[in-house]
Amino acid sequence: MNKPTKHRTSSGKPLTDDVIERLADEAEAGFDPDALAARRGRRGRPPLGAEAASVESVRLDPDLKQRLTQRAEDDGITVSEVIRDALRHHLEAS
């Protein structure tokens, strides 16, 4: 009977003895630096535009935060996307 695994990959897959053995074999064979750099480039959030995005913070009262969260859930989008859409709409109306 297999022992339950305690460790997981960053994607949540269990690190079984077979996975560890395969990774060790790959490490012993050596790594292609170009392949590693390409994999590293896929991490993080996708860009919002051609240039780096900024992060802004605002204070929300509990009622507004609840309404914002509910709107995001209702629309099936993130809270950040609701905020961006509302800000775009407000700025275009000015």
Question: What's the short version?
Answer:
53% of the residues lie in helices and 0% in strands.
* Ends apart, CA distance between termini: 67 Å
Shape: elongated
The average pLDDT value, as a whole number, equals 83
Please compute the radius of gyration using only Cα atoms: 22 Å
Q: Which spans have pLDDT < 50 for at least 5 consecutive residues?
A: none
Please explain how this structure is put together.
There is one protein chain. The protein has a domain of 64 residues. Helix 3 crosses helix 4. The chain contains four helices and no strands. 53% of the residues lie in helices and 0% in strands. It is elongated, with a radius of gyration of 22 Å. The chain is mostly helical. The mean pLDDT is 83.
Which keywords apply here?
4 helices, 94 residues, single chain, mainly alpha
Helix and strand layout, with pairings?
Blueprint: H1 17-29, H2 33-40, H3 62-75, H4 79-93
